[in-house]
Specification:
single chain; SH3 type barrels; about 10% helix; about 40% strand; globular
Length: about 250
């Protein structure tokens, strides 16, 4: 078994070992992982944070040994707390890092960081202010940053920045937490899940007060939510059908 760590700001995680393959997620600076299969130009990896799997370009990560992997894994992560910060590496060049990157990795990548750090669990009422950092970020399938993010990437990163772990996809996240019987039982920070005509969970958003929801649809936006689903304030129609609301915290 080999192990790796991301030494660049953001790298694509793809479904297949080719650059034209679908983007299924992203790997941020400091994310560590197991290398499940290594080919000439591509590696299949499993991220330590959420066990999500995909393919990365071999030139875009650094190999580490098992002891280093375990050491990083045992540490409580220290996350970049601003939209964009910079790492200064040993060659005195700048590496931009985005919100939620694991700055703890600088000790293993010969970097220096003097920006805002977030660590530990935060109170639930911090969820919405964190989510608002992503407002107007464009929708990007597989994205996890303020420069492009999908619905489950938004919920995962917002919870991560507050010290809580969510799985990667909306379908996976819907298996976590406690289901609520009525929308009136929900609190700001709870997660609302939405399904398609076949009953598959395809979308997730974060409940706000007074029947509003923040979610990624075209961009990270705030819409109304009712018992039917999300009411798009631009089109004046329901865009997503409500399936369940889950309390994670």
């Amino acid at each position: 078994m080999q192990y790796g760590i991301c030494h660049l700001s953001i790298i694509p995680l793809r479904n297949e070992p080719q650059h034209t393959s679908e983007l299924c997620s992203q790997v941020l600076y400091g994310d560590h992982f197991k290398v499940l299969e290594k080919r000439k130009h591509w590696s299949k990896i499993r991220l330590a944070y959420d066990n999500f799997e995909g393919w990365v370009d071999n030139t875009q990560y650094t190999i580490i040994d098992q002891l280093t992997y375990q050491s990083i894994h045992k540490q409580k992560p220290k996350l970049s707390g601003d939209l964009v910060e910079f790492i200064y590496d040993e060659k005195h060049s700048l590496i931009p890092v985005t919100l939620g990157s694991n700055i703890s990795a600088t000790a293993y990548l010969s970097g220096n960081f003097d920006g805002e750090l977030l660590e530990g669990k935060q109170p639930k009422d911090n969820i919405i202010p964190t989510a608002l950092n992503y407002i107007n970020s464009p929708f990007l399938w597989g994205g996890k940053t303020p420069f492009g993010i999908d619905s489950s990437g938004l919920t995962q990163m917002v919870y991560k920045l507050n010290g809580y772990s969510l799985m990667r996809t909306a379908s996976q996240q819907s298996t976590q937490g406690e289901a609520l019987s009525f929308i009136e039982e929900s609190e700001a920070g709870d997660l609302a899940f939405f399904d398609d005509d076949e009953g598959n969970i395809i979308h997730v958003g974060i409940m706000m007060e007074d029947n509003y929801i923040i979610h990624s649809y075209g961009k990270v936006r705030i819409d109304r939510i009712d018992h039917t689903g999300i009411f798009n304030t631009d089109t004046r129609t329901h865009s997503h059908k409500l399936r369940v609301i889950k309390k994670i915290i």
